[in-house]
Every structure is written in C-alpha cells, then in structure tokens.
Amino acid sequence: MSEPVWWQTAVIYQIYPRSFQDSNGDGIGDLPGITHSLGYLADLGIDAVWISPFYTSPMADFGYDVADYTDVDPLFGTMADFDRLLAAAHRLGIRVIVDIVPNHTSDQHPWFLESRSSTDNAKRDWYIWRDAGPAGSTPNNWLSAFGGPAWEWDPVTAQYYLHTFVPDQPDLNWRNPAVVEAMHDVYRFWLDRGVDGFRIDVAHRIMKDPELRDNPPAPADRESTFKWMGEYESQLHIHDQGHPDIHDEYRDLRTIIDSYQPPRVLIGEVHLFELEEWAGYYGRDLGEMHMPFNFTLLYAPWTAGEVRKRVDDLEAALPPGAWPNYVLGNHDEPRLATRFGAHATRVAAMLLLTLRGTPTLYYGDELGMEQVPIKNQQDPWAVREPELGRDGCRTPMQWDSSTSAGFSAADPAQLWLPLEAEHADRNVAVQTDRPDSLLTLYRRLLALRRSMPALHRGDYTPVNSTSEDLFVFERSSGDERACIVLNFNDRPIRFDHEGFADAEPVLSTTLRRVAISGSAVSLAPHEGVIVRL
Ligand code: NOJ
Ligand code: CA
C-alpha cells in the first residue's frame, strides 16, 4: 500500500463521557475527567479517542438529542474544558474524534422550537412535518427504531413530525438546503477548533424517500446477521433511510473535510447489513466516508468458521483501495465479555487488534467489563423495549478498588449507573499489576501492533487449516510476515504450518511463553498466538 494516513494505522478508543471519569463528584463523567485520564490512554497505546456527544442536551437520549451543536453541556464542563482536553490529547499524540448527530436534534433545539411554533414559521421546513392521514392516522407506516410509530402528533399546529428515534429527537429535513448549510457550519466549527475527525451518528438515515412511501413488510423467514430489534423488524427499511440522494451529501461533506490540514477522518455509523449497500458509503472513487463503521462481527456466532466468513465477506465487498475497520463493542450493544462469553475476551482482543484495518475499542472492554443487569433502566429505548435497553454496557469505568471504583468521589449509590459487581477486582489498578491480566494483554497487543508494519498496515490472507476450531490468517508488509492462529474452541489443539519451522512466536493471549515444536504450535483452549514468520 502507499504511505498510510494516520487513521489507517490508528487504534480508536471510544469514550462514553458520562461513564469514563467524574471530576467533580456529581456521579457523572465529564470532560475534565477525560483529560485527567489521558495518561492512561497514552500508556495503553491507543492513537485516537472518539468521544460520544457532550453537547448541550436535555439528555433524553443521553446526549444524542442535541440542543446546541456548538456548545458543551454544563454537566460535562465548558468549551474551555474541551479546548484543554483537545490540547492535552494532542500533546500526548492522541487524536480526538467527535460525534456529530445530523439526523435529528433535540426537541428543545431552538431550530425545532421555532419550527413547531407555527406552520408558516421560516424553519417549519427544517423538520419533516406532514398532515394526518385518513381518520387522523400517521402519514405513513414508518416505525421508530426505539419502538412505536415514527410520527408524533403536534396538537398546536395540527400536524405530525417525524422522529426516527424518540419523540424528543425530531428528524431534520436534509432536503432543505438551509439545513445542509447549518449542519456544514457545525462541522466547520469543530474542524476550526482542531478536532481530528467525526463519527457521524446514524449517517445512513439522513435521506429518506422524498414521497415518504410506506415500507413493505419484512418476509417472515428473513435472516438477520444483527440483533433482533423487536417490532421494528416487521418492515423492510427501504424508504425511511439510505435514499441514494444521501451520497451527494457525503461527497460534499468530504470536500469540506478534505479542505483541512492535517488530514481529518470521516467515519459513519452506517447500520446497513447488505454489504454492497454498506460499501457504497465509501463513495464513488472513495470520495465519501473514509470508513463506514463495520459492525458485522458484533453478532457473529463465536466460531472460527463464522468469524472468518464475515471477515472474508467484508474483504471481498470492499471497493478497490477502501480501508476496512472492525468494531467489537460500543455503547449500543451488550458488553463483548457477555455477548461472546468471558472465555472469548482474549481471542477477541487478538482478533480485533490483528485484523487488517482500523479497530475501534470500547472503553472497559480492555478490562473485560461485563454487561450489568440494571433494575431501573434510564435508556429511552429500555422504557419502550426493556430487553433492548443499553444501560448495562454504559456503567462507570473501573479504575481502582475503592468504593466508587476510582470513577467518582461520590458514593456508589450516587453514580448515574451502578458499578459492575466485580469492580473491586476487575479494574485498571489491579490489572496493571498482574502480568497475565486482560489489560496487560491489550497493552502488549497494542505495542506489538504499533511496532509491526505487517500488523498495522499489512495485507490480509486467510490460511486454511484442517481444524474448524481455528481461524488462521497472515498479515504481511514488505519482508515482514505474521501468522495469527486463534483457537475458538475449549479444546487444546495443535496447528502445523510449514513456515513455523524457524519462526518466532511473539505473543500468546495467555501471555505465557509459547514454544514451537518442529513446525507446530500447541494452543490451549481459547488461546490465540501471533507468530512472526
Ligand atoms: C446511534 C447512537 O449510537 C445511539 O446511541 C443513539 O441512541 C441513536 N443513534 C440515536 O442518535
Ligand atoms: Ca461530573
């Protein structure tokens, strides 16, 4: 490959700001807390942070309901706090990616307050308003991703407005050029402040069918490669998202991004599982997003064969020259350690950090944090569909063995979400001191990845093995070659490779010393090994 750009060789670490580090004892994480923790991140060995929204917000969706795109919510600090965070991160060589939510605003955003004030308000058309259908019915059959209809009746002006998420999150009308201009100003605001890029929230949703046609019902036997989203799954979402006009917008946005130096990155949250449609977000001539997030491994059955298939399908679907990326956890999905099982966390770490492309690591997954059962869920999704609630993957980061886990000076009962039960043992301080901990493994993997071009920029070649328990692949760059052998099963297994005869095993997920005997390596259950060929 040609000289890579920073975001291609980077490892991104996602911070959910409410939950990372609380600097003022109110039980909620904040920006000064993040600044305080940057040393940990530099030492861990990540290259960039993506921070979920910290803008002014009524917090109906914990910040994904923005009331002012160009200010910081007092709960999280001030704009000066943000500037300090950015400067401190840059001093440590850590890039900062911010989260922009272009599909919808808060219903308390001044734009929406104006829009809803009367049918002839100048901003009426900034949102998607429609008359009721026959007998007062909703304008079409679209559903909210969080349950129930996607339309809310507004008695004052006697029309419905569209909300893909909760009613507190009205959808912006991206077919109105004034909206496009206003949102481009938002991107420019943060670029001018010096951020290194954007994660675009539900990027594929901003353009809908201009005629707002009904979605067709989903065939009953449809298979899903992702999680089951309740009533929402009853339709094929072909008209309420991803209209092809969307690509003009991302091409324009990319032009704005590309006018800045040093280079910035554009990452889109694109929840589309037809790989061809998903890959379209790289754009013609790769002129749109640098990376649409790749979620295909999140719900992969944890077997070598399924994981390899999803990786190979992804590689095959990439447009020429497009850069892959992998996600194994985020603030919307059950914790990795719970989803795949605690036995899988080490192989998952090695997988994420050795596949070709940019990995995104969710805070706390480096400790093996588990999904926490929460009695009174706060997530607006949980209020409608409890089994889909996301609070359990958003619990406070576990820094040490003190009562509030070093997350906050507040009492445990005052934290915005309860701590995970194992926090006294599963935390940064404890795992830093243990040479065989998961955190130590992450540190070693990150350091190795950084030092080996084969791992951070090399080609990917799957290797066939005789065992269905193993996923084996090679990464190579110039003369450097690494072979990654991952055992997905709970049985020990030997793997023979002609290239192993005089090869050097460099890292095992168990952090033990691995020996090669003859041309074979013996793996323990759920062990992964990196061998330099
Ligand atoms: C996707 C975000 O990741 C999720 O947390 C949020 O609730 C929705 N978009 C709505 O903004
Ligand atoms: Ca706080």
Description:
The protein has 533 residues and is an alpha/beta fold. The protein has three domains: 6-104 and 177-445, Glycosidases (TIM Barrel); 110-162, Oligo-1,6-glucosidase, domain 2; 458-532, Sandwich (Immunoglobulin-like). Helix content is 25%, strand content 17%. The protein has 15 helices and 21 strands. The protein has helices spanning 6-9, 31-36, 38-44, 79-91, 110-117, 177-193, 246-258, 275-279, 304-317, 336-339, 345-354, 380-384, 428-433, 438-451, 453-457; strands spanning 12-15, 48-51, 55-56, 68-72, 95-100, 129-130, 151-154, 159-162, 197-200, 265-268, 291-292, 325-327, 358-362, 459-463, 470-477, 480-487, 493-496, 504-508, 516-517, 520-523, 528-532. An eight-stranded parallel sheet has the order 11-10-9-5-2-1-13-12. The longest helix has 17 residues, at 177-193. The protein starts with 5 loop residues before the first helix and ends with a strand. 1-deoxynojirimycin binds next to loops.
